[in-house]
């Protein structure tokens, strides 16, 4: 049977950028003989409007069954005052949690045509292609005890950084596997100098490396130095693996090396399913962009590159992912720009659909 996809376009520009992805999925079926079984459903505010919950149980069940989930974005001002338990982002958090998506892949890739967009000098970022692997389901955002309590005559806020050996081991394996498909190089970042969880992190990563991945080149770096090195000389890295908190900060910083939010894809992977494919959710890094919703201004590339990651990591179609990424690179080199990709000197932007048209034309020519 065909590989299956669940599309959850969500709110705001989510459906706008996902429309362009749907056309590309159709193209792969028609032109590359790669048909997908696509199901669509609701997540976020639109799901709340219909069902009173940002993720219906039926949708959750579908997400567990398909080969991959593609998500647009959730949220918007209409939902800002909702109770925390039904906020749109709770739909996304539930997906991550119940699918146990512990490995978050955030590429920072700099397309040559956009190198002048970076906050850094062109020669530091041109050709940059690194991958940050962030542990997504544990660490200080989840550790117990947590809360705000009173001690003596003042309030105290508490969070706990806690990592088990198995939590570290599985994300380390995910990074090493990834490195074998790329340039065989992993840098693990923690703060073993001041944190017990960092000491354990370094021990476990080292053990997994020695036992299972000694062919991969492994280095360790304190995460604060890592932040500095990322902006000083990012091209020294290939795969970076780090915990939830450091990964949150480092991946956001790395993102800005490459320019616009409208360009950044991500993947969140879990354990292999019965068919050998990992549980997987692919989504752009950006949100629902209420300020440009409904105006045809959204850049669909982040969502399109997220589908390219699905081709690569869920469907073993690395060559087809390369084809799609090359099509994006080609249209950028030819000067196609949505509004977010225009520099201060301006120029005339194309619409979301026109960007989709250009990428489809480049695919046809590939
Ligand atoms: P945002 O990412 O939606 O927008 C930030 C800025 O970047 C805006 O000026 C927006 O117009 C621009 N932008 C974002 N994506 C773009 C694209 N594809 N093309 C062109 N311009 C783009 O973040 P913001 O404004 O903080 O949040 C808006 C809503 O999205 C909130 O409700 C927030 O909770 C939600 N959100 C959802 C996320 C998700 O679904 N994963 C992630 C981040 C925010
Ligand atoms: Mg963040």
Automatic annotation (TrEMBL):
**What does the record's cofactor remark say about binding?**
Binds 1 Mg(2+) or Mn(2+) ion per subunit.
Q: List cellular component terms (GO).
A: cytosol
Q: Tell me which Gene Ontology terms the entry assigns under biological process.
A: L-leucine biosynthetic process
The metabolic or biological pathway listed in the UniProt record of this protein is: Amino-acid biosynthesis; L-leucine biosynthesis; L-leucine from 3-methyl-2-oxobutanoate: step 3/4
Q: Does the record's keyword annotation contain Metal-binding?
A: yes
Residues binding NAD(+) = 76-89, 287-299
Is the Magnesium keyword given for this protein?
yes
Q: Where, if anywhere, are coiled coils annotated? A: none
Per the record, what are the reactions this protein catalyses? (2R,3S)-3-isopropylmalate + NAD(+) = 4-methyl-2-oxopentanoate + CO2 + NADH
Instruction: State the Pfam families in the record.
Output: Iso_dh (PF00180)
Localization (cell): Cytoplasm
Q: Which NCBIfam families match?
A: leuB
What this chain does, per the entry, is described as: Catalyzes the oxidation of 3-carboxy-2-hydroxy-4-methylpentanoate (3-isopropylmalate) to 3-carboxy-4-methyl-2-oxopentanoate. The product decarboxylates to 4-methyl-2 oxopentanoate.
The family database entries (PANTHER family) matched by this protein are listed as: 3-ISOPROPYLMALATE DEHYDROGENASE
Q: What is this protein called?
A: 3-isopropylmalate dehydrogenase
Q: Which species is this UniProt entry from?
A: Loktanella atrilutea
Q: Which gene encodes it?
A: leuB
